[in-house]
Amino acid sequence: MPPQLRSRLSAAGFSLVLTAGGTEVTRFGNITVTKAVDGLGTSGICTSQLSFETPAPFNAYRAAPVVLTGVSGVGKYYIDSRSQSGGVVTVTCLDRMAFSDEDFPYASIDSSVPKNVPINTVMDLIVRTVGELTGWGGIPSWLTSISRTELQETCSDILTKISEACCGVFYITDEQNLQFLPYGNTSGQVNADVHTALDVGCEFTATGIKCTDGDGNVITRGDASRKYDSICIASELITDSGCEEIWGRAENYTHAAYSCQRCRLDGIPPTGGTVNFAGSGIMRAGSVTASISKAGIFAEVSNPEPSDSEIGMRGRNLRESDSKVRYGRSGAMMFTKYQGVVMVDGEEKVNSG
């Protein structure tokens, strides 16, 4: 048996117990938990993953629930796949969001329900279809209904539409709640008492928001004249009050990109949560890959760059990077041109792009 596989796992401050299908897995190791929010976190549904290794044979039934107790921030998962090599089975599990690919039960909406279906009805049906959820929450109060024409899709498609209109992401909480996390908000915090240096990138604070509704009407707040500085939403569901509510969040929020190669955590941060890095401040945990062992919880944590494709954003990022990029020269300056980036150190000029 590989040495990393142990009978349970113990560490300072916690002892781990793993069950699959209600049966305790007596020997396991190499536990990894991954949580991630795509981009700025302005839309999407987030699925968390847990993987572990255990000696063969591993006979848990298909899609069996997997529960790891003894560490905070780890909810219920379900077996998605398993592979075997050298007498060791690697098991990959996903949280309940993976079940949202089921078709929305459109036929269950009878004629007594209005053309614009109340959001409570829509979400209750999604929760029932996905199954094993305790409820839902977090959707802004301005979104009161959804047209029937928007509901003949999968539950995940509908959740994505709602997230795009409301500017945020859906995730599953540790308590099995289908939760909406609005852009600019956070879902909780953990601490990192030791960590490697943070590699800090660019920041993004929206100067405005531009919303286009289903009739092609354009609604703006703030200064939305520049795409790379703005949040842009095109949705059948967006309204003037929705644009106002989203702008109220966005104008006071700064998305800061960074990465931390390794840190020790006291728990797994919730999707879209934050990490308090000792001596370095509190940062949003856009992406977390955590390894859990008898030595503790060690993770790679990051928050992605604001954009990877817009020409305007690229130019803005380059201008902001002046004080962050090292070229091995003191007193170097940088400015942008349409054909690329020009570096000037007072004596020579270097073109890039």
Q: How much helical structure, as a percent, in the residues?
A: 10-25%
Tell me about the largest β-sheet.
16 strands, mixed
Mean pLDDT: 87
Number of strands: 27
Please, how many domains? 4
Give me the secondary-structure category.
mainly beta
Low-pLDDT ranges: 1-12, 308-353
* Assembly context of the chains: single chain
Radius of gyration: 23 Å
Q: So how many helices? A: 4
Give the CA-CA distance, first to last residue: 53 Å
Instruction: Give the overall shape, derived from the CA principal axes.
Output: flat
The fraction of residues in strands falls at 35-45%
Your description of this structure?
This protein is mainly β. Helix content is 13%, strand content 42%. The strands form 5 sheets. It has a 16-stranded mixed β-sheet that branches. A hairpin with a 2-residue loop joins strand 25 and strand 26. The N and C termini lie far apart (53 Å). The N terminus and C terminus are likely disordered.
Task: Please render the helix and strand layout as text.
Elements: E1 6-7, E2 9-11, E3 14-20, E4 23-24, E5 27-36, E6 49-55, E7 65-69, E8 76-85, E9 88-94, E10 116-118, H1 119-130, E11 135-137, E12 145-147, H2 155-166, E13 168-172, E14 177-182, E15 189-195, E16 199-204, E17 208-212, E18 218-222, E19 230-234, H3 240-250, E20 255-265, E21 274-277, E22 281-284, E23 287-293, E24 296-303, H4 311-320, E25 333-337, E26 340-344, E27 349-352
Parallel strand pairs: 11-14, 15-21, 17-19
Antiparallel strand pairs: 1-5, 2-3, 3-4, 3-7, 5-6, 5-23, 6-9, 7-8, 8-9, 10-12, 13-14, 15-20, 16-20, 17-18, 20-24, 21-22, 23-24, 25-26, 26-27
